[in-house]
Each structure stands twice: as C-alpha cells, then as structure tokens.
Amino acid sequence: MMLLLNIGEVKSNNIVTKNNILLVDDEPDLTFTLKYILKAYNFTVDTFTDPTIALKSFKINFYDLVILDIKMRKMDGFQLYTKIREKDPKVKICFLTATAIFTEEFKKSILKLDKNIDKDFVIQKPISREDLIKRITWVMNRDNEEIICIN
Q1: Do 64 and 92 form a contact (C-beta atoms < 8 A)?
Q2: Burial of 74 per CB tally in 10 Å (0-12, 13-18, 19+)
Q3: What whole-number distance in Å separates Cα of residue 30 and Cα of residue 141?
Q4: For residues 72 and 148, which has the higher predicted lDDT (pLDDT)?
Q5: CA 148/CA 100 separation, integer angstroms
Q6: How high does pLDDT run on average in the chain?
Q7: Which residue has the higher pLDDT, 90 or 99?
Q8: For 103, which DSSP code?
C-alpha cells in the first residue's frame, strides 16, 4: 500500500524544507515506526518492505529523500540505489543499516558505486527520534548536491 499525501512543505528554522520521503526496509516494524515518527514531524512518507515493489512505484522528481536499508531480500540497498539513480539522478539517497563500522564487504559495495562517502551523512540504527529528525532535516536542507547517507 502506498500513501500519496503531499502536504506541502515544512518550515524549520526559517528554511523551507520539502517533505516527501521514500523509506524502503524489509523490516515492517521498523518502517511502521519510522513512518509514525516522521509523520509526527509533518513529513510525507511512503514505505515499502519489498524493494522491487518500491522500485516499480518510484515517482521521478517526487521524492526529496530516499532512505534505503542495505541488507534486504530480493534486492539489496546498493542495487536499488543504482536503479533509482537511473530514474532520478538528483534525488537525495540515504542508506540505513545496523552495521556500526565499515566492513570490508561494505567498503567494496561502496567502491562499486564509485562514490566518496561522507561520514556526516550517516544514519545509524538504532537512532533516537530527535537525532533522526535533525539528520533528515539537515540532509533535506542541503543544496542539490548528490548526497549519500551511509550507516
């Protein structure tokens, strides 16, 4: 099921922030909880637990931020990243994972994307409600540079 409510923009510290977020994680409890938190802060959130359905439902130039879990069944976050980037090269994308350190496998996957990852864009599970909102607001207020958030 996809929620398609666009309630406009959120004003935060006199900065206008667009608010459409796509969240893809194969853990239904996590997607439900994150959506509940984000909606309480006036973000519009579409959630999917199946990355293939998320890709089919992805709307070009609609989302201001995409948050992808890295380890998912059917398609991992890096594969989904590549396919979304083909459709919409300007959307800001964050990776979300419980991995606390950069493992060798993780580093190799990043190198395959040919991206330089800035640790300032890390969203780490678990994360407090306040830190989640601060991080997402910060990322969404960034200029239209390509942003990759990694945890």
Answers
A1: yes
A2: exposed
A3: 24
A4: 72
A5: 17
A6: 76
A7: 90
A8: -
Contacts of 5 (CB under 8 A, 6+ apart): 44
Alpha carbon of 143 to those of 91, 101, 122, 146: distances in Å?
Answer: 11, 27, 17, 9
pLDDT in tens, 65-89: 999 888 888 898 889 988 998 999 8
pTM across the whole model: 0.77
The full set of domain ranges for the chain reads: 9-149
Q: Quote the CA–CA distance of 120 and 60 in Å, as a whole number.
A: 26
Q: How far apart are CA 135 and CA 90, in angstroms?
A: 19
Between 45 and 118, where is the model more confident? 45
| CA–CA separation, 141 and 18 (whole Å) | 8
Compute the C-alpha angle 88/90/95, nearest 5°: 85
Is there a contact between 132 and 104 (Cβ–Cβ < 8 Å)? no
Task: From residue 151, give the alpha-carbon distance in Å to each of 31, 126, 135.
Answer: 17, 10, 12
- The CATH architecture one would assign to domain 9-149 is 3-Layer(aba) Sandwich (3.40)
Give the gyration radius of the chain's Cα atoms. 14
